[in-house]
Amino acid sequence: MRRLLVGLSCLLLIATTPSQARGQESYSDFLTSQVRMGTMSPPDHLKDFIRDGKLSISLRDAILLTLENNSFIRVQETQIESQKFGVLGAYQLFDPVIQSGVNVSRYSSPSYSQLQGVATTSALNALNQTAQFTYGETFRTGTNIQAGISSVKSSTNSSFNFFNPYFSSQVNLQFTQPLLRNAGRFANTASLIIARRSLQQSRASFESTVNNAILQVIGQYWAAVQARGTLDVQQKSSNLAEVSYQRDKRSLELGALPPLDIYRSESEVAARRVQVIQASYEWTQAEEALRLTIGAEQDTRFRTLELDLTETPQPTGELAVVDPDAALKDALQHRPEIEVITASLANDETSIRVAHNQLKPDLSLTGFYQSSGLGGNEYDLNTGQLIAPGGFGSSFGQVFGFGFPGYGGALTLRLPVRNRVGQAGLGSALVARSRDLYSGRQTREQIIREVSDAVHQLEEAKLALAGGKTSFDLAQKSLAADQRKFELGAETNFFVLDSQSRLAQAELVLLQTQINYQLARAQFDHATGKLLDPYDVKIEDLSK
Fold this sequence. Notes:
Elements (H helix, E strand, L loop, with lengths): L1 H15 L10 H4 L2 H5 L12 E2 L2 E4 L1 H11 L1 H19 L7 E14 L12 E16 L5 E13 L6 E16 L6 H69 L8 H33 L5 H4 L2 E4 L14 H11 L1 H23 L3 E18 L6 E3 L3 H8 L5 E10 L5 H69 L4 H35 L17
């Protein structure tokens, strides 16, 4: 019996032991400083990119700033924080419970019999004071233990009590062990297993969301680069038209040019100025979209700073050579959507096993042991003299002397005639597995299609890039030839202006093909699950 009491003490010690020491997650493990503070951190790192009054950022810088400051990503990250506390809540079944209480009651009633031990003209008075302390815990095997200590002090004016006041104390230890339904570690930890997989699934979903957001910021970055390049091309074309117009104007003043020929140069200058204005507006729009994504609009210090994009659209090094089969293999290994599918199916299998468990009969074994003690002032009922003093201590002395034990056990079987709730649970779990199997196949089909499209787009972008370079080189040579012919008097200025327009158009086409190649390369990396590899960025660092 002393071992039982030692075991009770050990249980109390376990209840007060920090969860980290018992290998369990705790509230402090999951609560991040950002969630605890309840405030939004300002985009302080933006100041590190200020150069000569501008925000000078590379593509990698834009990605890092997006991961740090983008509001959409932070909103999606809260789903992981919620799932963390879902794991913590799954421990509820195993949380120990300590309960204590004190109860005081006084009763007074008129006497109606000599057996009450008071005179007929007196009232029977009783004062009861009860205190109890109970500890309960369920273990992962399904075993439930209840241990308690209680004591009652009762005093009365009845002359028939041996002890007055008397103290009745008791120690109880009870256990219940399921033998079929809810028996074993799996049945009792299934909810915790599912919660942990759901956390893993939410992290994979977050990674997929972030990959899509990063692909978007890459597109916005190159769109801004293209808008800025278009503005530069239009500005150069406008400058060339202005030079031609000034030359024709001098020729007109010298009488070497007919008056009507000046209108061609003048109208071309006006048209190209309009193109510059349009390109400038498009650059402003692209810049504002990128600024919003990287968080530059969150602080007034950075709202008015112009962006200086350091990346050049022209590809460096050898163009990418891809193997479609290897690309598909990489995608099926690295895409976070595959991990989401795997976690969902694993949870479905766990739910099915739990549902089968709930169809079993409910058979449980219960046992208890108790030890009682009684103490108080002992009186002689004949003389009314005090024989021996006593109290709370003497009652507990008997309790831990184990002279008045009680013990027993019970085997209980609960067999429902029709377990429709359990059957419905199993059916729902099977349907969920079927749905996730088809969803997984649909996701794989989508990944296969995305990889195939990305491979074709990349090959097309490479061919278009080569064609754009050739077209630009020929347009440069054509302008130089027409310029020389005009100087020799073999052609009019009309051909020079036309060559200038065709050169600007060819340069814009080349810029577009360069941007398309960069976007196709990013789309290919996204499709294969390696979008962030070139930038040495880990999404896992965001969701710890």
